[in-house]
Amino acid sequence: MLSENPDYKYFWPQFRAIPDSSLISSSVLRNFARTYMNALKKIVESLNNEQMPYDVLKRISAKHARHNIQVHHMQKMIKPLLENVRRTLGRHDENAERAWEKLFQTVGAIVEHYKTSQV
User: Fold this and answer.
1) What's the rounded Cα separation, in Å, for the pair 79 and 101?
2) For the Globin domain, which residue ranges apply (predicted)?
3) Is residue 1 in some structural domain?
4) How far apart are CA 82 and CA 86, in angstroms?
5) Of 14, 65, 72, 108, most Cβ neighbours within 10 A?
6) Angle at 55 between CA 82 and CA 86, to 5 degrees
């Protein structure tokens, strides 16, 4: 994701001082990736609870809004995520990919809604 969109590293202060050549092997990126995947896991695991997905998405939306992350930024993250899902599963699963795409669209819409409702 960052190799295809190097300007994304400026959204997160912890990445700014790290040279592009060192970023891929940095513990900062590993910690960020772990946080990112844990947030996705929380969203997916909370889908059976009516209130919890809203709370999790609201918290994530607030963080994204603070960094001025927009829907198109999130949409660019779908492809690298799906590539990792395919690699991890060892196969292509069209239903799983559609579900991930829908999740990102939903999170993006909630981020946009949250940003406009905070004005």
Assistant:
1) 9
2) 1-108
3) no
4) 6
5) 108
6) 10
